[in-house]
Write a structure and sequence with these properties.
The chain is an alpha+beta fold. It has a domain of about 110 residues: Immunoglobulin-like. About 15% of the residues lie in helices and about 50% in strands. It is built from two helices and 17 strands. The strands form three sheets. Strands 1, 2, 3, 4, 5, 6, 7, 14 and 15 form a nine-stranded mixed sheet that branches. A four-stranded antiparallel sheet has the order 8-9-10-13, with no helix packed on it. Helix 1 packs antiparallel against helix 2. The radius of gyration is 23 Å and the shape is elongated. The chain starts with 6 loop residues before the first strand and ends with a strand.
């Protein structure tokens, strides 16, 4: 990793202020009779903005302690583990979950080492973002409650190959293979149609919060092969609580995607034959 400042995955006070201003303008334009609620909204927004500013400032102080190579400017008390973050932005029905899973005892460090890292996961789907990242919980008073997480393709294992075959009563048949080679996901698909429309190879990741899906390959006939980079954007990331989907791009993932591989999810390869006007045929295998 290059020497640099870690990315801060925490909304700033300006982000919160922008949301509050939009809400006030919305009320003034669409519900003028509800203007009595504006002072209450402003007071609540002010409290939220102040809290966001404190969170952002604390996270920024943690970011200043370390470069992206893991070198600390001074000895820091920290504990290794994994951060688990799930954020489904759905208005008042939103789901926000955050947990730190320790993987060792607290110690004083001069450098962040990642010997406890066993892969990582970054999964996005619409307004959902799930993270399972190796991290350190900072225990110093300056930054207590802040976590420094890492994304590095070197953490990713080798898995597979997994082979799948599938046929239908009408005579359609398909075969597929999938293998993980570190940060590269190798996939191949062959389809021999009779009455079916197409075949596709999917990768599913069940995180316990949501089942994320990515279509790796699709074919109407013949063979297809692809190599996908699932390493993400290497670097260190400062986290304080669940990370919203608006920050997905900072981690190198689009609004729909799967990056990494690790124990924070159950991985399933699925081969599907698409039958017009009838339920699809499919077969699964664990990756």
């Amino acid at each position: 990793m290059e020497a640099c400042r870690p990315e801060v995955l925490v909304d700033s006070a300006w982000d919160r202020a922008g949301i509050a201003i939009i809400a006030v303008v919305f009320i003034a334009m669409l519900a003028p009779r509800a203007l009595w609620a504006v002072p209450i909204l402003l007071l609540a927004s002010a409290a939220t903005i102040i809290l966001a500013a404190k969170r952002f400032n604390k996270a920024s102080r943690a970011a200043e302690l370390v470069d992206c190579g893991g070198a600390l400017k001074r000895p820091v008390a920290a504990r290794p583990g994994y951060v688990v973050s799930y954020y489904h932005d759905a208005g008042r029905h939103s789901t926000i979950y955050f947990k730190f899973e320790p993987a060792g005892e607290p110690t004083v460090l001069s450098r962040l080492e990642w010997t406890h890292a066993r892969g990582y996961i970054v999964a996005a789907s619409g307004y959902r973002l799930y993270l399972w990242l190796p991290a350190y919980e900072i225990l110093d008073d300056c930054c207590r409650g802040v976590y420094i997480a890492a994304v590095d393709p070197a953490f990713l294992p080798q898995r597979g190959p997994v082979q799948l075959t599938l046929s239908t009563p009408e005579g359609d048949s398909a075969s597929a293979g999938l293998a993980l080679r570190g940060a590269v996901l190798e996939a191949e698909l062959t389809f021999w149609p009779v009455k079916a429309r197409s075949a596709r190879l999917e990768l599913h990741v069940d995180t316990g919060h949501h089942r994320f899906k990515k279509v790796l390959l699709a074919a109407e006939s013949g063979s297809r092969r692809v190599e996908l980079d699932i390493g993400g954007r290497p670097g260190l990331y400062v986290i304080k609580g669940a990370v919203p989907p608006t920050r997905a791009g900072v981690l190198g993932i689009e609004r729909e995607g799967l990056l990494g591989y690790g124990g924070g999810g159950e991985y399933t390869a699925r081969l599907v034959i698409d039958i017009p006007l009838r339920p699809d045929y499919h077969v699964d295998a664990q990756l």
